[in-house]
């Protein structure tokens, strides 16, 4: 129960304090915002991207990396093994967000933590 409360507080804090904004002035607040960046990332790997897609892609990947690093410092719910790339992590998060559209309005940090903690749980 304590972990659930801490996760909720972490997500609440992340949503309130980390109102990241990219070059276009759009911020990542919700899972839908993050998914938009991750779909742009997908386009960059398919070579169907424009300059804005590359900016959104980097913005989304940076957001995920930041959430993972913060989680590793505080809660340790995510234990990403060595050798897992940022792109692999982004694909896991993108799949989770696409599979759970009803959570689109939830804080983006919550989506990252949920997706990656299911894929890479810490075994204590």
Short description:
The protein is mainly alpha-helical. 65% of the residues lie in helices and 0% in strands.
Describe the structure.
This protein has 124 residues and is mostly helical. The protein is 65% helix and 0% strand. Helix 1 (2-17) crosses helix 5. It starts with a helix and ends in a 5-residue tail after the last helix.
Annotation keywords:
10k-s Protein, Hypothetical Protein A, Chain A; mainly alpha; 0% strand; 5 helices; globular
If helices are DSSP runs of H or I spanning 4 or more residues, what is the number of helices? Answer: 5
Whole-number count of domains: 1
Tell me the span between the first and last alpha carbons.
16 Å
CATH third-level topology: 10k-s Protein, Hypothetical Protein A, Chain A
Structural class, by secondary structure, is mainly alpha
Task: Name the overall outline.
Answer: globular
Helix/strand order: HHHHH
Strand content is under 5%
- Low-confidence blocks of residues: 15-22
């Amino acid at each position: 129960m304590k972990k659930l409360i801490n996760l909720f507080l972490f997500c609440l804090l992340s949503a309130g304090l980390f109102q990241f904004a990219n070059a276009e002035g759009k911020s990542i607040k919700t899972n839908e915002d993050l998914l938009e960046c991750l779909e742009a990332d997908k386009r960059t790997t398919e070579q169907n991207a424009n300059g804005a897609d590359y900016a959104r892609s980097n913005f989304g990947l940076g957001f995920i990396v930041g959430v993972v690093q913060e989680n590793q410092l505080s809660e340790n719910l995510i234990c990403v093994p060595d050798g897992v790339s940022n792109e692999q992590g982004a694909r896991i998060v993108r799949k989770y967000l696409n599979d759970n559209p009803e959570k689109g309005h939830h804080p983006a940090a919550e989506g990252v933590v949920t997706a990656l903690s299911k894929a890479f749980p810490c075994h204590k």
